[in-house]
Amino acid sequence: RAVGERCTASHPDGTAVMREHYESFGTKELPPHVFSLASDAYKALAVHGKSQCLVTSGESGSGKTENSKQVFRFLAEIAGVQRTPGGGDVATADGSGAPVSMQDLLIHSNPVLEAFGNAKTVRNDNSSRFGKLVTVHFDGSGKIIGAFTRNYLLERTRVSAAPSGERNYHAFYQILAGATADEKSSRELTDAKDYALVRGGVLTVDGLDDAKEWRTMRSSMDELGFEASVQLAVFDVIAALLHIGNCEFTHDATVAHGDNAAKLADPAPIAAASKLFGVEKLAFSGAMISQQVRDQ
Fold first, then answer.
1. CB count in 10 Å sphere of residue 13
2. What contacts 24+ positions apart, CB below 8 Å, involve 180-184?
3. What torsion, rounded to 10 degrees, do the Cα atoms 87, 88, 90, 95 define?
4. What dihedral angle (degrees, nearest 10) is formed by the CA atoms of 16, 19, 23, 28?
5. Are the CB atoms for 10 and 34 separated by under 8 Å?
6. Cβ neighbours of 9 (radius 10 Å)
7. Which stretches of the chain are assigned E, i.e. beta strand?
8. Tens-digit pLDDT profile for residues 249-268
9. How sure is the predictor about 16, in pLDDT bands with cuts at 50, 70 and 90?
10. Which one of 73, 74, 120, 289 is least enclosed by Cβ atoms within 10 Å?
């Protein structure tokens, strides 16, 4: 539908409320609810066989992220059971053969997306700093067979420093608070107060347990089928960025040419970062203090 109904942000409800909105079929007057919009879109898809669109919009802190979660909860509850053509359960990503719950898959994607794309702002403790288009695919019987998320317009400038009164992306605080002593030691990580990327803003948030969120995010990556080697590589990149943020530059008076030459005030951060990136330290250091202009 090009134009449809609107609904303001609402609080999450349980499965019974989902079923009530789905089974009402217009026979009962219900208060405005995100489940009603999701139900109407799903019914229109089933009846008319045409793709439907739900747009979640609003200013920061208006509830876009939470309401989107409720749409996915609703669709997963109503249409989330996957079966193979022969009637058996679909195998999990790790090949264990256990039943796949689309509700679990949709829910597990949220902690990963939020860890790397959400941050505390002055108006919202879990603000999405990117836009996303989620396409949910259904089979001929109306059951979900997959979903695809496309992210765009990530606020890249936030990575370089945490604004005053805000925070950088959740992943930086999560790894510093939740990684084991061995995991931090192997990446030469210490405490949040020691890193410029995060200490410029708010280090902790009331009601937000970064260590718990770290465990939830790692569990979600396991459930989504991320290989252990991929997870370790991602965590190495997070740690390397924290080290790079501590790099400081000073004038290099030993270079005898007309340009203003620079050097690293302390080689330790770049040494740690190059190790985590798996690149040669001198080459990486050179890239940090020199500029190449390519004329094409």
1. 16
2. 183/235
3. -160
4. 50
5. yes
6. 14
7. 118-119, 127-128, 131-138, 144-152, 249-251, 262-264
8. 998 878 766 567 888 999 99
9. low
10. 289
